Amino acid sequence: MTRSALPPVTHLATPRLTAGLDEHGWLDAATHRRVHGPLRPLPTDVLVQLVDDIQLTGRGGAGFPFGRKLRAVLESARRQQRPPVVTVNGSESEPLSFKDKVLLTRAPHLVLDGAALAADAIGASEIVVAVTDDEGAERSLRAALAERQMPVPTSVHVVPHRIVSGQSGALVNGINGKKHIPPATSQRTSDAGVKSHPTLLSNAETYAQLAIAARRGPYGYTSLGLVDEPGTVLLTVTGAAARPAVMEVPTGTPLWRVLELCHAPADAAVLTGGYEGTWINPESALRATISRAGFAAVGGTLGPGVIAPIGPDTCPLGELAQVVHFLAAGSTGQCGPCRLGLPDLARSVDLIVAGTAPTALVEAAVEAVRGRGACGHPDATARMSASALMVFAADIATHGARHGCGRPVKGQLLVPPGPADTNARLSVDWSRCDGHGLCAHVLPELVSLDANGFPALPQSPVPVWLHGQARRAVRMCPALALRLTTEGHHAA
Amino acid sequence: MRTLVEYAAGVVTLVLLTLAVMVGVLATDRTVLRPRHRVLLQPVHSALSVLAVGAVVLHVVSMIAKGYASTLDVLLPFLGGRSFEVGMGALALYLMVSVFWTGLIRARFAGSGRPWLWRVLHSGAYAAWPIALYHGFEAGRAAAAWVELSYFACALAVVATLLARLAGLFARKRGARPTRYVRLLDESTQLRSTPTVRPDRGRTARTPDVDSFDDGDYWAQLRGTAT
């Protein structure tokens, strides 16, 4: 991703992380020093105290207190007598979020400052910065590393752009040379992470916040924002906003101000926290304030700071279906509830869109995946879908009564088109199909039979992990009626 | 080893081909078999076919090596100067290999506009098999009576299954399969004619006898709103 493909950066109140970005495209070492000032390394106890004073939490979505993480790594390193590793998670796998990409692509020195501070303070042996394979961040980081001194050897690791590859366990797996998938049995990265060393793993913005706090000190840092969650937050405002942006705001800012500044449609339902977040209705969006607690109070999730309003001119259920299908296709297929449950969920949402099934079907599908699987992916998908059922209850009723709402699906939630092979779709030649039902037996994940024994196929792409099965179903079709096509081309 | 191949490859081919044809025609059945059986039978059919083609290649190579046939006999059936039976064997070989090839490229026909073409080509199996049987009986060693009878029984079974399949096909074409709607109608008429699940009786049994209550107005009113 080149710099111009990133959303523009704005800020409310004094910019901190985004300082200098309205003037400069890329902050080189000299500009960075001029904008942010010099930085001195901090002793261990001072850094721990600072992190506690500013109540720094992980900015990747989970909001885990950074101080507890720091202590766990220090304790683990002392017990194991091995130096820890500092890992910066810049993979930002949430498709709607751009704030880490913006930071890494335009202000890499700030993130590296934070990582260097942490590495110095905990006596780390190395720093690993993980970024996605879209070039911009990687190039910027390598250029920044070339013009500065790091306290310990620092490497850049490129991870594939998948929804689950940003999960900490998956990231550590990838850095260790294994597949980028979440580990089946969870192990604390603070005990054994990169190369089995105790690992301090946090999100890129977290390290940037640390670099800001080290310069301003606890009093200077907490001068902005709420008492409980001081400082600023990076938001990605997207969806139907006419002026999408990465925006730095102090915590406690009303959400409506952010929406207004980005020219979001009035009375919009908002997807908060991204695809793995939750929906809030327009009334809640008016009441919410920007902070983890402020969003939680109205049933939202701040998560990685994604604010995605959708307009009144698009079919919200159709938008939801696109997201659920994307999340279902993002499953690595290693856990049954996720591999089978998410396509079920996506299919049930399809039926809601078609107005042929009650919400109870989606609720059942949600219950089947809630809290199950090796990582949080199925659970988050379930939570997002469940919140949509509540926020869009009126739309669901309309769809049920009229088999649709008459609005087009505009794709305002920017569901990314998958790589070429994920666009494979199953289709059936209805004049040939004779309802043998073999496809439903070979491919129960995607094909269900109607009451007359004819297959019902999803309009969504066939997930990558089902391609083999899909080809088998095509081979097995006794009527030669089933086919697998990729973007209009014949695939099997 | 070589003698074993010379001795057995032909027979093994015939047996495998017979099984492949039978499993193939059986896998199309939908009156007795459920989808899961048919899904299991398809790979069995493919495996038997691969083995049959492998065996026939061994058989041909070993026969040429032994001098019972020449390469020319294989390339030009009936023109190489051997007996009619050997020519039929070569013909069966060609049919077998082409049917095998249509099996390999079957998925391609799912996209094309001509599935019937695939059916016609793959039906070559019904020609290859009897020709191979004829070749086996006439060109090879004299077979025992029970062997001949078994092949005959297999042939009868295949013809019967094939007829059943065709009959079923025509029946479906005429729309003889009951739709879900028809089945629902059936079920509801069954419900009505079965005394045990008659809904009316249960309700009358639980409803209190209206006239035995003193508060006649109240119950009359209730009865009025209920009906």
UniProtKB/TrEMBL annotation, chain A:
Keywords: 4Fe-4S, Flavoprotein, FMN, Iron, Iron-sulfur, Metal-binding, Ubiquinone
CC cofactor: FMN; [4Fe-4S] cluster
GO terms of molecular function: 4 iron, 4 sulfur cluster binding; metal ion binding; NADH dehydrogenase activity
Keyword Acyltransferase: no
Domain NADH-ubiquinone oxidoreductase 51kDa subunit iron-sulphur binding: 317-362
Family: Belongs to the complex I 51 kDa subunit family.
Name the UniProt record assigns to this protein: NADH:ubiquinone oxidoreductase, NADH-binding subunit (Chain F)
UniProt organism field: Asanoa hainanensis
Lineage: Bacteria, Bacillati, Actinomycetota, Actinomycetes, Micromonosporales
UniProtKB/TrEMBL annotation, chain B:
UniProt keyword Transmembrane present: yes
Superkingdom field: Bacteria
Region described as Disordered: spans on this chain: 192-212
Membrane-spanning segments: 6-27, 39-64, 84-104, 116-137, 149-171
Record flagged with keyword Transmembrane: yes
Record field: compositional bias (Basic and acidic residues): 198-209
Keywords linked to the UniProt accession: Membrane, Transmembrane, Transmembrane helix
Name of the protein: DMSO/TMAO reductase YedYZ, heme-binding membrane subunit
Protein species of origin: Asanoa hainanensis
